[in-house]
Give the backbone structure.
Amino acid sequence: MTPHTLRISGRYVVPRPLTLSQLSERLECSLEEARALAGVHRFPHAFIDRDGKWRIPVADVDAYVRWSAVPRAREEVTEDL
């Protein structure tokens, strides 16, 4: 069993959305930075649950990490030239 998965009829099918705290750990940033990213809609499927807490889908976080890594990779290639 992996953490952050949703169980339906005894099967784990969809990763459970991350909290802001989990997001900040995954992105290695402060809680305030994670809150700001969620607030400016960097994660298109993020939502605020009925308790008023942000929930960010893992797929959105993975896409953000891939997207944000592209400029850095280009900068590293340019620096090597």
